Amino acid sequence: MPRPRSPGYGDQHKAILTAAAQLFAQRGYTATTMLQVAAACGVSKPTLYHYVRDKHDLLAQITGNHVSRLVELVDGVAAQALPPAECLRELVSRFMSVYAQAQHEHRVLTEDMKFLTPPQQRQVQDGQRRVVQVFADALTALRPELKTQGLDKPLAMLLFGMMNWTFTWLRADGRLSHDSLAPVIFNLMMGGLPTVGPVSS
Length: 201
Known about the structure:
This protein is an all-alpha fold. Helix content is 72%, strand content 0%.
C-alpha cells in the first residue's frame, strides 16, 4: 500500500520544481546535479527522490507544467469571448504577467526541451501549437484576411518574438517591468497590423 502524502507535499513539490528550474536556467540542464537541486531545496537527496524519479523527470515536469499553464491561460481568455482588440490585449497582458513569474521555466523550455524524449517533446509542442493558434485566432478576428493570406500564424510568432525573449535582457531591477512592457507590445502590434499586406513569394 503506498505511503500517504504529507499535507505539505504539494508545496514541497512545487518548491523543488521552482528551485530546479532556476538551477537549470542558470547552470544549464546538463551541468546541474540532483545533489545541487536537493541542496537548493534544503532537503536530502533521498528525500528529493520521494518527489521526482530523476533529473529527466524534473525537466519533463518543469516544461510540461509551464506549457500547461500557458494553455490554460489562453483557453481562459478565449472563453471570455471578448471583442477582438480586448482579447489580444488581455492575451498579451496575461502572458507578460506569467513570464514575470516564470522566467526560469521559460528559459528551460526554450533551451532544454531538446533533452526530452520524442513523446514528451510532442506533448509540449502540442501545447505550444494550441497557444499559437489562440493568438493567431485573435489576430484573425481583427483582420480576417490574414488567415487566407497565410499570415495569421507568422504574425502570431512575430508577436511571441517580442514577448518570449524578454528573459534574455529584461532585468528585475531595471526601469521596465513585464507589466509595463505589455501595453507597449500590444500597441506595437496594433499599430503595425493595419500596414500588413499580402506577402509576395
